[in-house]
């Protein structure tokens, strides 16, 4: 019941309108193996805004996007607000003038729900960090522990493609790293705190400190275990030296502190990096910060289409430039799907009869908002109407159904 057949597709797209190229984003894509020659020579063309003529009869990205809407399946993204803006404007219609109309349209486009794995990583599993590769590797580790202990665990199966398709298939290694990185711990390169907290470092591949996600998770786990032992030692000392009632009161308070730090009452943060000054500094060095208006964000992200806007949101530049790297559209999609499947398995427990309830109620139609403690709700309020362009598209989607 927790086995998934996984098929991943990379579609190389090319916007047929003028757009702005950001050097940092292009460098990021090149470092991770993106082929700009292929994009400009073989990329699937698309245009932004409303349809031009009856595009329902043509084989285009817009037709494909309508098929996704017709399928009425849940849409899963990671830190997905900008992705949704991009998908809507480039493959669907002109962006609405206000946010209420935009969320109303989305709620009708994807009635099975929209799920954001960054929100799930912070507010459901409550990981110390929630950028994509960290959340994926953390889920992978925890899942392996469940498997080793014969507990309920997630299993992923891949297709056996015929040999004549080999030139169309790109393989990436995604298993857990071997224990070799634990050997010689005293000689290892120190972890980059900025990258550890945010999944991005302004120095990129030139950073002298480690951007290795496995080492970062090791360090986080070690620090958490040390804190847990210290708290446990304090409780024992209090119980032995103070009055029973007072000791019980303080012990209870200590447990509440542990719950809070473990994220039971909110997502934990890496306090060494998560400070206002550091956050401001990050905002200043990050191009296209997520706080900009939707229209401004959407005008200059065509170069990032194939990376699913990953350069915009995560900038996980780890290790020297290599052919391919691990951070690309298809692999990002796989990691996103894996996180969601793992979270769903944990949350549903033994209740497999979901009935008419949403697929994962606590994450249903909730988009992560950077720097906010509350998500963006994808709902149609009583005070908002659907856009005219959206209404026309919905008629088109179901006219041929």
List keywords for this structure.
401 residues, mainly alpha, Nucleotidyltransferase, domain 5, two-stranded parallel ribbon, 15 helices, zinc ion binding, snRNA binding, zinc-finger, metal-binding
In short:
The chain is mainly alpha-helical.
Description:
Residues 186-214 form the C3H1-type domain. A zinc finger (C3H1-type) spans 186-214. It holds the Pfam family CAF1. Residues 229-272, 286-328 are annotated as: Disordered. The protein has helices at residues 23-31, 36-42, 61-71, 81-91, 99-109, 117-123, 132-148, 193-198, 213-241, 244-261, 276-285, 294-298, 310-313, 329-348, 388-399, and strands at 3-6, 13-15, 44-46, 75-77, 114-116, 155-158, 366-367, 376-377. With 401 residues, the protein is mainly α. It has a domain at 2-127 and 326-399: Ribonuclease H-like superfamily/Ribonuclease H (Nucleotidyltransferase, domain 5), CATH 3.30.420.10. Strands 1-6 form a two-stranded parallel ribbon. Strands 2-3 form a two-stranded parallel sheet. Strand 7 (366-367) and strand 8 form a beta hairpin. Helix 7 (132-148) packs across helix 9, helix 7 packs across helix 14 and helix 9 runs antiparallel to helix 10 (244-261). The longest helix is centred in the middle third of the chain and has 29 residues, at 213-241. The protein starts with a strand and ends with a helix.
């Amino acid at each position: 019941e927790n086995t998934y057949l996984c098929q991943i597709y990379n579609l190389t797209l090319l916007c047929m309108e003028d757009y702005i190229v950001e050097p940092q984003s292009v460098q990021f894509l090149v470092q991770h193996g993106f082929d700009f020659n292929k994009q400009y020579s073989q990329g699937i063309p698309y245009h932004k805004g409303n349809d031009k003529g009856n595009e329902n009869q043509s084989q285009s990205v817009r037709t494909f996007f309508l098929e996704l809407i017709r399928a009425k399946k849940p849409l899963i993204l990671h830190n997905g607000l900008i992705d949704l803006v991009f998908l809507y404007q480039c493959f669907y219609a002109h962006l609405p003038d206000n946010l209420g109309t935009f969320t109303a349209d989305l709620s009708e486009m994807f009635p099975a729900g929209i799920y954001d794995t960054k929100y799930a990583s912070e507010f459901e599993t409550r990981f110390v960090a929630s950028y994509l590769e960290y959340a994926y590797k953390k889920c992978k580790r925890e899942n392996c522990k469940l498997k080793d202990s014969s507990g309920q665990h997630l299993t992923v199966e891949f297709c056996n493609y015929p040999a004549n398709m080999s030139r169309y298939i790109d393989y990436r290694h995604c298993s857990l790293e071997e224990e070799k990185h634990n050997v010689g711990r005293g000689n290892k390169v120190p972890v980059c705190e900025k990258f550890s907290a945010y999944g991005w470092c302004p120095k990129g591949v030139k950073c002298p400190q480690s951007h290795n996600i496995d080492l970062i998770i090791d360090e986080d786990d070690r620090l958490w275990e040390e804190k847990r032992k210290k708290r446990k030692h304090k409780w024992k000392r209090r119980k032995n030296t103070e009055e029973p009632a007072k000791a019980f009161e303080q012990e209870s308070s200590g447990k509440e502190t542990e719950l809070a730090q473990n994220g039971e009452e909110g997502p934990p943060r890496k306090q060494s990096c998560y400070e206002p000054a550091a956050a401001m500094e990050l905002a200043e060095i990050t191009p296209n910060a997520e706080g900009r208006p939707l229209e401004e964000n959407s005008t200059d992200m065509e170069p990032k289409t194939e990376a699913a806007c990953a350069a915009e949101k995560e900038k996980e530049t780890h290790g020297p430039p290599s052919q391919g790297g691990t951070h690309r559209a298809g692999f990002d999609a796989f990691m996103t799907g894996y996180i969601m499947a793992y979270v769903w398995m944990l949350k549903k427990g033994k209740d497999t009869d979901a009935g008419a309830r949403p697929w994962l109620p606590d994450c249903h139609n909730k988009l992560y908002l950077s720097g906010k403690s509350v998500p963006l709700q994808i709902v149609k309020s009583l005070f908002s109407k659907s856009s005219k362009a959206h209404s026309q598209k919905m008629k088109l989607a179901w006219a041929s159904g």
